[in-house]
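Suppose a colleague, Dr. K., hands you the sequence of a protein chain of 389 amino acids and asks what its three-dimensional shape might be. Before reaching for any lab equipment, you can write down a predicted structure in C-alpha cell form. Begin with the sequence itself:
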Amino acid sequence: MFEQKGMFINIYKNLVTPILKKDTGIDAEYLTNFSLSLLAFTSNNRNWPLIKGIIKRLNDEFCVVDKRLHQNICGIDFCNPVGLAAGFDKNGNAANIWENFGFGFAEIGTVTKFAQSGNPKPRLFRLAKEEAALNRMGFNNNGAENLFKNFLKQGIPLKKNRKNNCLGINFGKSKITSLSKATEDYLTSLKLLIPYCDYAAINVSSPNTEGLRKLQDPILLQELLREVKKLDNCPPLFVKIAPDLSYKDIEDICQLIIDENINGIIATNTSLDRLGLEQRKIKQTGLLLSEENGGLSGRPLQLKANQIIRHINNIDQSIKLIGVGGIDSPESAWERICAGASLVQIYTGWIYKGPQLVPNILNGIIKQLNKHQLSNIKEAIGSNLKWIE
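The predicted structure, expressed as C-alpha cells, is then:
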C-alpha cells in the first residue's frame, strides 16, 4: 500500500489527511492525543530494535542537515531554525523524539505548577477549509513534577550534556493561582525544570486562562521577570506575547525586555480576533466563530503575526525573535525570518500539511540561501529579502 521511500509521508497522506479535510468526524483533541500516545511509546522505547528501525526511517525522511542552517542564539546551538511550538507536547511525553522529525528544537508545555484538567470539552475545533483551529484548552497538563518525571523516564540528558535535542519549556500560571501569587507559581515550576531547559518561555498571553493576559502589563511583567532572573542557572528567557496587543503595548513590552536584559520574544500566541472569520460557523456547536471563546491559530493568523515580528524587529534588532503563527510553507517561514525572526515554530500548519512540512521548509530555506548567495541563515534575518521562485 505504501512505498518504502517516504513511508511515513504516505501513511500520513492516506490515513490522516482525509480526516483533516472535514471540520467534523474524529474529534480534533482525540486525534491529537492518539497521535501523541504513539509518539510517546516510540520516545519511551527508542532503544528497542524495532523502534530503532522506525527512528532511522524518521531521520531519513525528515532530517535535513546543512551547516548554513546552524545558529548559536543566546548561547544555545540550534542545528536548524524550525521548532515545534508549545501546546502539542504539553507533558513532554515525546520529548525524546522531536529531533527525529527534523525539528531544530521543540518547546514543551505549557506546564503549570499544579496539574489541571483545563477547560470543559469540546475545546479544540478544526476549521478545515481555512487550515485553522480554534482552541480553548486552558493549559491542561499534568504539572511540573510530572514533566520532570517524564524527562527522567525517557532518559533525557540534562541540558549541559545534550546535543541536537534542544528543548525549550513553556511556563504558565496555574488556574487556581491568583495574579498576586503568579510569580511564586512560575518560580516553582522553573526551579524544578531548569536543569532540562535550554530556554524558558514565559507565557503571559494565552487567552484561555482567566486574567493571564493581565501579566502582559509592563509593571506586572517586570516583577515576574526580575524574580525569574534571580534563579540559579536561569536559562535564556523569552516572553510569549499575544497578537491582539496594540503596537503601543508591544513597544512598552519591548522597552521592558531591553531594560531588564531579557533575551527575546515569542510572537505570537493564538488570537481572540476572528480575522475576518466572524461569520464562520463551528459545526459541532452550531455557533458562529464570533460567539465562541478561545484562540484562533493557523493560516488566518499568518499576516498579523508577520506584521508583529516586523514591527518588533524595527524597534530593536537586539531582541531575539521566535516567530510563530500561521507558518505552513517554506515561503511563509522565509518571510517570517526575513521580517526579523531568528527561529520559527509550527503547530497547526504541521498538522494540516503533515510531517513533511519540516524538511520542505528547511530545503526551501536552503534554496533561498543559494539564490540570494547567502552563506548562513543569519544573513537573512531581518533582511526583507523576497522569496525567489
